[in-house]
Each structure stands twice: as C-alpha cells, then as structure tokens.
Amino acid sequence: MVVGLKARSLQSITRTCLWSQESRNISVPPEPLAGLTRFDMMKRVDRGPEGTLTIDPARPGDAEWSARVMAGADPWITLGRTYEVCLSRLTRPGSDLYIAIRGGGRAGFILMDRFGVAGSPYIAAVACAAEARGQGVGSAMIEFAERLYPDARFIFLCVSSFNGKARRLYERLGYKLVGTLKDYIINGVDEHLMMKPLGDR
C-alpha cells in the first residue's frame, strides 16, 4: 500500500545507484563512477535543492519509526491499520525495508518484496515523513526500488481506490493499471494493481 506524494521532476534527480557487496548480496556495476569506489555504502545519491538524499537498508529502530509514519497517514488510517499491524508488516520475513535520509534525519521509507507478484518485485509500502512531503522524496524512493533488482523485468505496486493523488503520481512515473482487487482490505475499497516494465537488463 502506498501513500500519495507530490512528484518532483525526475530530471533534478542524480541518476546514480551505488551498491555495496559488503552490505547486501547483489551485483555491483562493472565499473565504478568517477571518484567513487564500488565498495561505497549502498545508497542512492540525490543532490537537489533540499540537500543530499541517501537511501540505505534499515537499521535498528527504523522499523518502529516507519510503523509510526504508516499508522499516522493515509491510506493506512482509512484502512484501519494500527501501529502494531504496520510494524508486523514491516518486519515480516522476506521483505526488505529501506530508509531515506536527508539532513541527518529520516525522510521516508520504502518496503520491498523481492518476489512479491508472480516472481517480480513488489513495492509493498512507501511513505514520507510529514515534513518531507512534496520534496520529491517519494519519487526518489520509487526510482531506487526500480533499480534495486537488476534482473527484474517488471515491478508492481498497489494503490487504494480512494487514493487518487498517489495513483496519478504512479501513472506519471510509468505505472499502468493491470488489475483490481475488489473489497480487498476493507469493504467498499478496492486495491488497484499497477505494473511498470523495467525492460531487458
């Protein structure tokens, strides 16, 4: 489930992903970027007017913070998701939680299921801290997710039927509606399954 976020032009996002073999068992780009080693911390670097944004694997305490953000925002408020339910989802085996950091503080999180839909990655949740909304953090985290699994050809997410703002953002980012789950979480609210092709990589 994903929360509506104001999109910022992706042209202002430095399109750089740095991977670390030491922090995660994933492939490393064959050539490091100029001035950087291939063993830099796993992070996405976004140099924008609001400062440098990094996205790193969650550390102790990050899941609890993310659960508070979830439980205090839509769509999870409307869907009746309590802090305890959110925390359970964030810490479920098989899911990977990443935290966006800006200015030394947490700006948002994204929760990934590596084989969530028919063996393809699934964005299970993405949200920003209240003070970081409207700054492009959500778009940056989604782009990060699209680069996270280099062998994937598609990526999926769901958006609640009442969350038109979020759906418009995902459509701008290239996601298309591929199915609807009627009354999936609560009666009267559908979940729209959206997909984006990532191409042959």
Spell out the key features of this protein.
single chain, alpha+beta, Aminopeptidase, eight-stranded mixed β-sheet, two-stranded antiparallel ribbon, 10 strands, disordered N terminus
Protein described:
There is one protein chain. With 201 residues, this protein is of the alpha+beta class. It has a single domain (10-197), classed as 3-Layer(aba) Sandwich (Aminopeptidase), CATH 3.40.630. Helices cover 19% and strands 32% of the residues. The chain has 4 helices and 10 strands, in the order E-E-E-E-H-H-E-E-E-H-E-H-E-E. It has helices at 62-71, 83-90, 137-148, 164-172, and strands spanning 17-18, 43-44, 46-48, 51-57, 95-102, 105-117, 120-128, 154-160, 176-181, 191-197. Helix 1 crosses helix 2. The longest helix is centred in the last third of the chain and has 12 residues, at 137-148. The protein is globular, with a radius of gyration of 16 Å. The protein starts with 16 loop residues before the first strand and ends with a strand. Mean pLDDT is 81; it is low at 3-42.
Helix percentage range = 10-25%
Low-confidence stretches: 3-42
**Nearest-angstrom radius of gyration?**
16 Å
- At the first level of CATH, what is the class? Alpha Beta
Could you tell me the number of beta strands?
10
Tell me the strand order in the biggest sheet.
Answer: 3-4-5-6-7-8-10-9
Within the CATH hierarchy, at the fold level, what is the topology? Aminopeptidase
Major sheet summary line:
8 strands, mixed
> SSE order, as H and E?
EEEEHHEEEHEHEE
Number of DSSP helical runs: 4
- What's the overall geometry? globular
Q: Indicate the CATH architecture.
A: 3-Layer(aba) Sandwich
State the oligomer.
single chain
Give the full name of the CATH homologous superfamily.
Answer: Gcn5-related N-acetyltransferase (GNAT)
